[in-house]
Amino acid sequence: MRSVWLLALAASGCRAILGIGDPPALGDGGFVSCEGWHPEGFDPCALTITTDKLALGGAAYTYDTSVAGGTLYDAAHQAVVTSDQMIMQSDGSAVAVLAVGELTTAAGSTLAVVGPRPLLIASWSSITLDGALDAGSHLGVVDAAAHIAQTIRFGAGANQGCTGSAGHDGGPAMAGGSGGGGGGSFQAAGGGGGQGGIDAVAGGAAGAVAAIAILHGGCPGGSSGAAGSVARPPASAGSRALGGAGGGAIRLVAHDAIDVAGAVSANGAGGAGAPTRSACGGGGGGAGGYLGFEAPSVRFGAGAIVTANGGGGGGGGNTSETGGDGGDGVVGSQPAPGGAGAPSCGGLGGAGAAASRLGGATAVNASCAGGGGGGGGSSGFIVVRSPGFVPGAATVSPAAQIE
After folding, report:
1. What is the pTM of this model?
2. CB-based contact 279:342 (threshold 8 Å)
3. Looking at CB atoms within 10 Å, which of 2, 10, 130, 305 has the fewest?
4. Closest-CA residue to 141 (of 236, 317, 272, 280)
5. Cα–Cα distance, 267 to 135 (Å, whole number)
6. What is d(CA 287, CA 323) in angstroms, rounded to the nearest whole number?
7. Which pLDDT score, from 0 to 100, does residue 18 have?
């Protein structure tokens, strides 16, 4: 599998688009030669270096791609670095670009990468990651009393380019519970949603396996079917358990070397469990996203963890009990657990994909007046382009594709 992106640079002028003119200049007045450096899909000489050396200490940071090439914020939400550079893909979508002389993250640091656009980080020397870089999506409870959960953090570029690959919604409730949502798909298919009880209301199907002709994140899980007339307050007829978002997408490209000793993840979010007294099915888990590494030397250290795992599907509920939320994709090789079904009646959510299991697990049907579980999200992609790749004894889930 070799993906090819047709890209053009935005925001730097015609000479940059054509790759004409001087190579990028560092702040000390020196120049970096781009000759012989030909990463896939873009011309590094068309980029402007935003900062010579970006060194993140042992603290929390967020990179948000919402505006142009994105902004790096510190723990106090003060802007540290801002980029105006984007690369346009062949389908018209944009990739945020951060170009640096060198990037290092210290042990104990966390860098969350969020926003609507995928992120490309290009370094004119090396990228050294000793901290945690998280481009995954995450589920959170927004109303504890009604047990309403939804994705509260979207990895950069999550849910983009997902036509046909998002999990399908479950069927609406009739006399019993509604169907669970299907899991999101990316490298493989997500798991199917479980049937709602009594009337065997259909669970949502998984989406189609997604292509990566462009850089994008994982695809979302489907929502459960609506609660309908069986709902009891605080639930209403329109209550649903929402599907989890897919993981984000980040591509790391360095002129010399990439060294990972920490954790780099782009996992899918878990699907929500059924809201209180709704008899809904669970939401489907989101698919894992995309992690790309490209340099002459790429090394994953013995303690490194690199993951693009799927989220677990939510559990089905009934008219007196909630369903459990599915787990977010795990930073490790274990599958994210599906949410527990309501104790007296409700289907178990399917586990998210991890390690050698690329597809999400199918959820459990409800055999009584409850909702079916949501299907698990599939694995995303980890792609390494390097003639000098050293995987070491790192935890890599799913297995990296070497190009």
Report:
1. 0.92
2. no
3. 2
4. 272
5. 7
6. 21
7. 30
